[in-house]
């Protein structure tokens, strides 16, 4: 073990000397490795950041959460012209499923309506997203309140004129110091009593954020828009109890809603039962494809870097031929010479890789300053991957020069090196 540590130390010294004595040559040789590692880790970090941001934007929804609507999350065998004619889910169907479906932890009915203005005295905020939901939305999305409360079942069913504000909306209307609870705001030209304010969460990937939204009982919005308005895009969101067989649960939902709609056994279901797990799998598929494409592109840089390392090692073998001959004449085995040059190649490649990782770190910090709440993730795993790839490139690139050095005849090596 000690001899290998000595070889590693000597190889490290040779690598550092190569950097010092042949700065331009070594720099040009390591550029490929540096760029390659930078490209690979930058791609991995960007994809991880994108995935984390998307998952964060839907973090309130468990993968088991089910969304019933007239559209499908992904591809479907049903022709487009057919599913476009499907009817929207209704509030009555939501109540029916909630009452008659076993193993439901929480269920909510939501409407997507156009943005509105919200006004308090002389302060007004325009283009505010309206969340028209039932009271159980609070539990499904795992919302957190900084003050006040969410509306209850009685207020939800009766359509009481109450509203819960996002943090930024509350600040713009009432300032940082004043409490929003108990204040009256005007939306749709009607007065709403503020009963709660959500905790600040920051901007989402696509600019969407709960901070800039408001929530009110869905029955308030139903009175305004009616139940046959195609603009409202209704959805039934259901969170099953933990441990429930998901396939069986979806089959029960399908059966219940088909029965409610009076569909015959040979008729196609006129709704889609979507699961968040399917959306998560879709995100994983997209990010996986992005990783593969990035790795392929970055691989060309690593190929160039590998040739550069191999070149510098062949030159190193030629320059140290005399020294190799002397070492072998003093009893150094072929294995000792082989490991000496292999270690040197790996060390050179790792140095180039570490420079690439440092550049990714710097770029991620700079990029984070210009992207607001979007956080670039440079995980320990990515750092490990970058270092491992560098070492592998050094090992592959240095194997041939190391073998050629280990097979030199000591007499010929001394004579050639003189």
UniProtKB/TrEMBL annotation:
Residues 296-410 form the ABC3 transporter permease C-terminal domain. The keyword Transmembrane helix applies. Keywords: Cell membrane, Membrane, Transmembrane, Transmembrane helix. It is a multi-pass membrane protein. Residues 26-255 form the MacB-like periplasmic core domain. Pfam families: FtsX, MacB_PCD. This is ABC transporter permease. It comes from Aequorivita aurantiaca.
């Amino acid at each position: 073990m000690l001899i290998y540590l000595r070889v590693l130390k000597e190889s490290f010294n040779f690598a550092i000397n190569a950097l010092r004595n042949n700065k331009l040559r070594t720099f040009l040789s390591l550029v490929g490795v540096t760029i390659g590692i930078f490209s690979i880790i930058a791609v991995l970090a960007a994809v991880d950041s994108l995935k984390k941001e998307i998952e964060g934007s839907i973090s309130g929804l468990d993968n088991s959460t089910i969304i019933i609507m007239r559209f499908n999350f992904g591809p479907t065998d049903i022709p487009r012209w057919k599913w476009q004619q499907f009817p929207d889910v209704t509030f009555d169907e939501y109540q029916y499923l909630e009452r008659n479906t076993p193993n439901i932890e929480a269920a909510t009915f939501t409407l997507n309506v156009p943005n509105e203005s919200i006004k308090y005295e002389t302060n007004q905020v325009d283009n505010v997203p309206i969340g028209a939901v039932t009271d159980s939305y609070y539990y499904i999305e795992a919302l957190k309140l900084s003050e006040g409360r969410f509306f209850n079942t009685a207020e939800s069913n009766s359509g009481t004129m109450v509203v819960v504000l996002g943090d930024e909306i509350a600040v713009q209307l009432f300032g940082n110091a004043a409490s929003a609870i108990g204040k009256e705001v005007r939306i749709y030209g009607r007065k709403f009593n503020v009963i709660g304010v959500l905790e600040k969460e920051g901007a989402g990937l696509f600019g969407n954020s709960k901070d800039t939204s408001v929530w009110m009982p869905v029955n308030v919005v139903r009175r305004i828009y009616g139940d046959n308005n195609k603009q409202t895009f209704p959805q039934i969101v259901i969170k099953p109890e933990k441990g429930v067989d998901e396939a069986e649960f979806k089959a029960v939902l399908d059966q219940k809603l088909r029965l409610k709609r009076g569909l015959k056994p040979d008729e196609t279901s006129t709704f889609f039962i979507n699961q968040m797990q399917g959306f998560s799998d879709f995100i994983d598929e997209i990010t996986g494809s992005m990783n593969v494409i990035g790795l392929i592109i970055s691989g060309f840089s690593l190929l160039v870097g590998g040739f550069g390392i191999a070149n510098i090692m062949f030159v190193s073998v030629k320059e140290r031929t005399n020294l190799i001959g002397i070492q072998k004449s003093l009893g150094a085995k072929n294995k000792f010479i082989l490991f000496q040059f292999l270690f040197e190649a790996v060390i050179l490649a790792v140095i180039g890789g570490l420079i690439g990782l440092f550049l990714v770190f710097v770029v991620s910090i700079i990029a984070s300053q210009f992207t607001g709440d979007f956080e670039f993730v440079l995980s320990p795993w990515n750092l490990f991957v970058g270092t491992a790839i560098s070492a592998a490139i050094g090992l592959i690139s240095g194997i041939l020069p190391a073998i050629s050095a280990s097979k030199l005849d000591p007499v010929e090596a001394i004579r050639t090196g003189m």
